Amino acid sequence: MTDLAPRPWLPDAARARIEALPLPADPVAEVEAAAADLRAAHDTAFNLNPATNVMNPRAEALLASGIGSRPSLGYPGEKYEMGLAHAERIETIAARLACAVFRARFAEFRVPSGAMANLMAFMALARPGDTVIAPPASIGGHVTHHQAGCAGLYGLTIHPAPVDAARYSVDVDALRSLARKVKPRLITIGASLNLHPHPVPALREIADEVGAHLMFDAAHLCGPIAGGTWPDPLAEGAHLMTMSTYKSLGGPAGGLIVTNEPDIAQALEATAFPGLTANFDVARTAALAVTLQDWCIHGAAYARAMVDLAAALAEALRVQDLPVHGTTDSHQFALDARPFGGGQTTAKRLEQAGFLTCGIGLPLPEIDGDLNGLRLGTPELARRRVRAADAPAIAALIARALREDPLLVAPEARALRARFQDLLYCN
Predict the structure, then answer these.
(1) Are 110 and 138 in contact (CB under 8 A)?
(2) What three-state secondary structure class fits 304?
(3) Each residue of 341-381: pLDDT tens digit?
(4) CA distance 331 to 273
């Protein structure tokens, strides 16, 4: 049997797409062709999705080096399987580099994804039934912090944090009142869209008052934090910081957790092993080490390029009379997508013109069936040598794609994108 069982719970569009992709006669050839097409599609588009990036070729090569299938279970010097002395070299280098880049004392790198980083943190610091205060979706709060994600699946009770809409963050005074009332075990901050620094010192004061830990989710901000263009959450008082490693950091798909607290580090390690991961991917760890060394050398320049480009592109879109939402101090910003039918509707339209984006929630009136915002970011474009001076030309094409037939704009977008083939900030 080669067909998939019917899943009536799927959205209509998902069912139709799956049905249109039957198992081919030569699956391996089709997978290879699809992989080549996927790479070509991204190499010819302006990737403004801040949740993705392009890797150092040396890191990418390590993913295909053949070492990823070698199990590595246990601590260096205490491995369960034999023949892993060289894997121990890789993992200790990765851990030391993670601590150096994020100015931390402890790093947990055996993390398959950013979502799993959050789950590990929840499991290390809370028990089912405990209470968590987390940013809501209206200010980019991630699903993993909420009922439908790993926080809810683990059995935590989630209270959405009160919102400071003007700063696209949490309302400190209202959150203090909520914390005194619900006595959270954990307060989380950091989101899928971050425009201005979050009030980490004030949140640490609240956490101390109610006996909670403060967790910073740096899935998107890890690059600017590493490069010094965003305040350091650990230095400001966060007990621990989780992150993805493939977004603004530009590394392999996976996660990372850092902390300065020995008791938290010990709890995280027990959660990682023998808890959730057991064996881990040595190839990914090696690629992460290469990525982290890039940040040791080029981090300040890369982070500054991302932030400067985001500011320039946001301003260029304003010049085009597009509804940019507020201002930004980060490598991300957003458009009010309601005039164009919603965030995902707008993203699909821009994709036809060669601009890759995605929807996001904004603290604005909601619309039926779609998100009310469009999220844009600059990690990949900055690495491709797109600079602030290029923003007006890109913004003009985006504006035309939203007002004209996007397919007619696509050839011009591809021609402009062809100018940016470099790959910067790599060793």
Answers:
(1) no
(2) helix
(3) 999 999 999 999 999 999 999 999 999 999 999 999 999 99
(4) 34
Interatomic CA distance for residues 354 and 211, integer angstroms? 49
Positions of E strands within 83-192 = 106-111, 131-134, 157-160, 163-164, 169-170, 186-189
- Supply the angle between the helices 343-353 and 406-417 in degrees, to the nearest 10: 60
Q: In terms of Cα–Cα distance, which of 42, 57, 417, 99 is closest to 250?
A: 57
CA distances from 182 to 133, 139, 161, 299 (A): 9, 21, 12, 40
Parallel, antiparallel, or unpaired for β 213-217 and 186-189?
parallel
Residue with tokens 């350091």: 232
Query: For residue 222, what are its two tokens?
Result: 């890890």
Distance CA 167, CA 37 (A): 40
> Which H helix or E strand runs over 416?
helix 406-417
Structure token digits, residue 21:
């992709």
Q: How many residues does the chain have?
A: 427
The pair of three-digit structure tokens given for residue 345, joined into one six-digit string: 């509707």
pTM over 0.90? The answer is: yes
